[in-house]
Amino acid sequence: MITKIIFLLIFFSTMIGVGLYSRKHATNVNDFVLGGRSVGPWLTAFAYGTSYFSAVVFVGYAGQFGFKYGVSATWIGIGNAIIGSLLAWVILGRRTRVMSKHLSAATMPDYFGKRYDSKALRIAAAAIAFIFLIPYTASVYNGLSRLFGMAFNIPYSVCVIAMAALTGVYVVLGGYMATAINDFIQGIVMLFGIVAVIVAVLNGQGGFYQAMISLSELESDVALTYGQKGVFTSFFGPDLPNLLGVVVLTSLGTWGLPQMVQKFYSIKDEKAIKYGTIISTFFAIVVSGGCYFLGGFGRLFDGPAIYDANGRIVYDAIVPQMLSGLPDLLMGIVVVLVLSASMSTLSSLVLTSSSTLTLDLLKDNVIKDMNEKKQLTWMRVMLVFFIIISVVIAMDPPAFIAQLMSISWGALAGAFLAPFMYGLYWKGVTKAAVWASFASGVGITVANMFFKFIASPINAGAIAMVAGLIVVPIVSVVTPKMDSKNVDDVFCCLEEKVLVSKKKSIEE
């Protein structure tokens, strides 16, 4: 216990220290929300990765999908690295940075309002972002608190309140720069921590080969594979269609999440984008691939501890059960690992929500003549407000971790992904198409919550994203076009011509 407490005290002190140091970088709105658009590749890449992977992945998703699909769940981590990190940076990174700067957009709703010349779209996007970021935040609290309860025997409510308070302190103090620096520190902990945990857990099962042998001897769900053995060590596992649904949701979803895309707004220059792409992809391979690979051995820890009183499996209890037998030193590392993953995601969520609520909903709509100083004050107030709401929900979460995240990601990415991505490349996207995407993304997700016409909320989220990618071009073709002059003004930043002098004036 002393070892764990020492680790925590060092961690908490570092986070608060960074918040105090970063106060000088949070003196205006641009600095507080975007770090002055001058953040380097390492900080941006780690901020992207640590915001991507939280306790939801380590405790919730790794436990649930590792148990369901065995080591084939590693494909989810690979998809996260290739689609969610590499392709996201390549396709969205540079254009997002250039266009958001050109439009002076500080948030994703702000981008929608200026790109499509519509105040109504900006307000609608802000409302969607605020509402559906709350369940995601609650799921992060939930995942971390389960692990803390096991490691320290601390009540769930105490964990949630302490974590919320710490996050609020350093984000209120230092804004985006505080979160970026802390994300870098937390990312280093996550990289080394996940490798150490995998090695320790597998050694406890007799090593990698013995663990694979033990896993191969287990029978799977008879309804899926007729009881054949070895499916949990097979290449694609026992249920490939649903596995692909998880890959789509957790990988493609990042392209439409405000807290993820906003990282591209702040990056410094072209060189930083190139290096950031490589760093972010490597981070995702190690952390996400490692989490799902570890979760793939969850069935080796099957026992009473992962079932509730009614005999139903509690997926969120699988990873804590896998870690319960680790030595004190490693358990301390695990606690800091999951704390790092969760705090970084939380800080990103609360900063995104408070800035969206202030700049896109309150400013000029509710509060007129909001100057720079008032904007900073209101963002800090809204930051605390958002934390309180998410804590209240986290105290009595309506569903297990993975389901909460699926609802949030499905609605947000289903609504935003298509109009955001198409809007960076295609002049022909219409306002009606954006509204249609908002309606389909939120509509499919919310309707499925009540009527459950799609059995898995994860598949529902994936379908909502794909639906948006289909709806936007179809509606754009059949609805009135936007004013060509306004659209050309938006895209002129991507078509700028530069004159350079030739070094050689005599051609061969």
Describe this protein with a few key phrases:
single chain, 508 residues, mainly alpha, Sodium/glucose cotransporter, 20 helices
Description:
By secondary structure, the chain is an all-alpha fold. It has one domain (2-398): Sodium/glucose cotransporter (Up-down Bundle). It contains 20 helices and no strands. It has helices spanning 2-21, 29-34, 41-52, 55-69, 74-103, 108-115, 119-152, 156-204, 208-216, 222-225, 240-252, 258-266, 270-295, 318-323, 328-362, 372-395, 401-425, 431-451, 457-478, 484-491. Helix 7 (119-152) crosses helix 16, helix 8 (156-204) packs across helix 16 and helix 12 packs across helix 15 (328-362). The longest helix is centred in the middle third of the chain and has 49 residues, at 156-204. The N and C termini lie far apart (76 Å).
